Structure formats: structure tokens, C-alpha cells
Amino acid sequence: MTPDNDKKTSIATLDRTATLQAFCDVVESRRSVRRFTDTPIPDAVLADCLRLAMLAPNSSNLQPWEFYVIDDADTRKRAIKNCMNQNAAKTSARLIAVVARTDVWQDHAQQILREYPDKPVPKKVKDYYNKIVTLDFLRGPANIVSVAKWGATQVARRLKGPIKSPYYTFEDTKNWATNNTALAAQNLMLALRAHGFDSCPMGGFDEPAMKRLLGLSDDHHIVMMIGAGERADNGIYNTQFRFDQAQFVHYV
């Protein structure tokens, strides 16, 4: 290997090491912060964090998420009450409802085809979003299509082997949407930490009241409320610890 190649390899190794260290710093320093200072989160910073949130992996790129940043003073006051007046909500610089949608898969499938970056859109991509995605989610009146899908799936498994289970019920679709949205929420919290801010994901809130406040429908599902801001000196309540990794990791 030439000296130039040696130098390039060393630089690449240093870059990887720096990237890993930066990632570890973000993940290891992220805590659920319950009290924040009065320091505001600039709009540009929040916008970048939301951009990074929406780079989260998600099924078929259907992006079944929404983020409601509650900035209006009166709405915020009522939202804090709906969060049981938790300090993480009361002291937050920004309060965000992370919402999963169960009714957008069809519209988003068509939007993907309209905005697909490679033109012309490949036939296999068109077929996937026009046919496979539709078959996956469609339930029909009184779930009649779901019954047919269930039968066809059992036959396919016996004849061809493993096959992905379609979404048979509303709960299946809700689980799909909330799982994907939770990935985006984690991205959001890590992005805030990378920008020098902190967050607290809150599951303790009155969802029906919060949905009424935000004007959401039965197809909207609030996965969590996130309070965000600058960490106060008394913002972390307890020492962080986790159970031993061997308890949870299984090599099979």
C-alpha cells in the first residue's frame, strides 16, 4: 500500500471513530429530563430536529406520522393540564404531540408515485404501491376482505412457505402506524440531544382530551407527548441504570 493510500485509510478510520464517538455521546447522554430551563429552542433547530425525525425508517416509506408543535399559549395551557401537569410539560420550551395516522396509507402510496425521484417510475414500483400495498391494508365492509386474505395467506403458507401476514384488522393497522411513528419519535429525541437540548417522552396524558384539543379524529393516535428544552440542573430525577444485557440478548 502506498503512503497516500495509508494516509487515506488512516483518515477514514479516524472519521469512523469520530462518528461512532459522536453517536455514542448522543445516545449515552440522552435522558428523560423532567425539568427544563427558560432557554428557548430556536425555530430553525426544531425544524432540523423534525427533519431528522422524518428520516426514520418506516414501512414502505408510507410515513404515517404527524407532529403537532403546541405553541399557542392557551392551547399549551390546556395541553399541559391534559398531561397531568407534569413538570416535563409545564417547564418545556416546546411541547409536541407525536401522532400516528391509520387513514393515510392509500393517499401516501399515490403521493409516492407522484413524487418518486426516478423517472419514469419503474413498473415494479407502480405495481407495489397500486396493488401490493392496497391488498396489504384493505379490509372491506365488515372486514370481508380480511377474511379472504386470511384464507389465502394460510393456503400460501402451506404451499409456498413463509409469507408476510397482511393487516387483517383495524388494530393491525394501528399497530403498524404507531410502531413506525415511535421510530420517528426516537429520532426526534436524539436529534434534540445532538443539538444540545433534551426531551421527555410522556405516556401519561389524557388522549381523548388531547385529541379534542388538537382537533384530531378517530384515525389519529397520539403515540406520546414530548416535552423538549434545555436541561435544568435538577432536571434528572434518578441515576440511570439498565438490567444486564445478557438478560435480553439471545443468540440462537
From TrEMBL:
Belongs to the nitroreductase family. Residues 28-229 form the Nitroreductase domain. The keyword Oxidoreductase applies. Gene3D superfamilies: NADH Oxidase (3.40.109.10). One of its GO terms (molecular function) is oxidoreductase activity. This is Nitroreductase family protein. Transmembrane segments: none annotated. The keyword Oxidoreductase applies. It comes from Psychrobacter halodurans. Keywords: Oxidoreductase. It comes from the Bacteria.
